[in-house]
Amino acid sequence: MDRGHRLIRSRAAWAAVAAVPLAFLTLFFAWPAGALILRGFHGDHGWTLDGFAAVFDSARTWRAVWFTLASAAASTVLCLLLGLPGAYVLYRTRFPGAGALRAVLTIPFVLPTVVVGVAFGALLRDDGPLGWARLGGTPAAILLAMVFFNYSVVLRTVGSMWAKLDPRLAQASATLGARPLRTLFSVTLPTLAPAIVSAASLVFLFSASSYGIVMVLGQGRYQSVETEIWFLTTQLLDLRSAAALSIAQLVIVTAALWLSGRAQARMTRALKLQPETVAARPLSLGRDAVPLAVTALVAVGLVGVPLANLAWRSLHRSGELTIVNYTQLAGQPTLGATLGGALRTSVVTALAATLIAVTLGVLVALIASRRPRRPAGRAALSTVESLFLLPLGVSAVTVGFGYLITLNRPPLDLRSSVVLIPIAQAVVALPLVVRTLLPVLRAIDVRQLEAAAMLGSSPLQVLRRIELPQLGRALGLAIGFAFAASLGEFGATSFLARPDNPTLPVLIFRLFGRPGAEMYGMALAASVLLAGLAGITMAVAERLRPREVATW
């Protein structure tokens, strides 16, 4: 009976813990997004599907849907073709500087999408290094930026599993007479299938929601589902059509999330079957020439050139080497704001968002990592985890606009409050924190927990002595992810930032959208500052990454 009482008290305690993040998610995500969608289906004479029919009768809508799906699919294919050779070179072989190269190739993923758009815009414009290719303002420019942004997802996700792949599998195949290429396709790639599928679904997800990239590089000629939602809500105030597109986007991205979750679970089980360490063999310039050449081309051409060109052009004005872009940006107010004010707003709001996201993420990770014996309990925890990944599947534009129409009256009249931006950024960062912390908790051997309980430790003592110390090992990386994501968040913030107090990404977008060499130069300088801040944040966090967190 006493054991039954303890079990009831334990379940009640965990239910109380779960209530906190669930209340936050309901109040600041489900309610605003749901209210916007429901309002879109409510006309002057009650509930109607006219908006749904109207939006999907529009050729513009189908162009946006087609462009979103086609660009995301093309980006996924290119990232796999380029990322698999890189994963082999950087995780299966060893050579001097491999760790540094892995860190450099990680930089694009932590850059705000608006900075990625500005970097490729500077590279491909008529007076840029690749202006002769006439790719500026074309779908190819958007696709290149997507691949630049998502390449490291494949690199890290597949590479982390490839590094632990038992070499005896390939050796047995070679012993039986299989050529290296046949071994690759018949043994290695099928074994890596869970990691490949997980990486592909994540790349598709991130490419389909590259709001900042399409906004900057599309130049109004190409629309994705997200930019079309922004256009319908802010320019036409057509909430019914925006609601229909929000649902369409939710269906697309939820499918990608489900596929990614299934593949990640399979990959986690597969990784546990491998040895803890597998020695990488020395890089061979002869045998590894093809993957090495592909990796070098990506490192120099796709990653190095845009970043170097962004920094170089930020130091030029009218063809002359100068720091005037930085001095003007740091001097008088520009477009009603100053660099110092925008930087201060960005850092303060990102810190507040990080505090919220990490606090809630710890609670969610602790709940989702429970190990109930009954299938119903495991299914319930899987549902909880999926709920907190949903913000990845809903446009930040939808959430931001939803705030404006729901949090605009007492007792939650927050439209003009400074707390709304960090709350919106925390909603975006929370899924990344959960995905970072969960693998560490799930890596704890269940026998260790059972042994502690058998020796008389209460659930609270097990939590304090075993789980929380393990969780603390991943907090540095979680904090870095949350801060970098919040710092570069643009979708929801573009709705909520006041004209006289923008964040740095919003200021960059405003500068980039204004004509003139002066505005363009300051946009480049601000992009370099934001990229440097995000890169330094993740470089520090990466040094604290525990080995259980193999992917993002």
TrEMBL record:
Q: Which Pfam families has this protein been placed in?
A: BPD_transp_1
Domain ABC transmembrane type-1, residue spans: 65-258, 343-541
Where in or outside the cell it occurs: the entry states:
Cell inner membrane; Cell membrane
Q: Does the keyword Transmembrane apply?
A: yes
One GO term (biological process): transmembrane transport
Example of a GO cellular component annotation carried by this entry: plasma membrane
Segments crossing the lipid bilayer:
12-31, 64-91, 103-124, 136-155, 192-219, 239-259, 289-312, 347-367, 387-406, 418-438, 474-497, 517-541
Which CDD domains has this protein been placed in? TM_PBP2
Q: Print the keywords alphabetically.
A: Cell inner membrane, Cell membrane, Membrane, Transmembrane, Transmembrane helix, Transport
**Membrane topology according to the record:** Multi-pass membrane protein
This protein's major location comes to membrane
Keyword Membrane found: yes
Family according to the record: Belongs to the binding-protein-dependent transport system permease family.
PANTHER family, per the entry: INNER MEMBRANE ABC TRANSPORTER PERMEASE PROTEIN YDCV
Q: What is this protein called?
A: Iron ABC transporter permease
Per the UniProt record, the source organism is: Tessaracoccus aquimaris
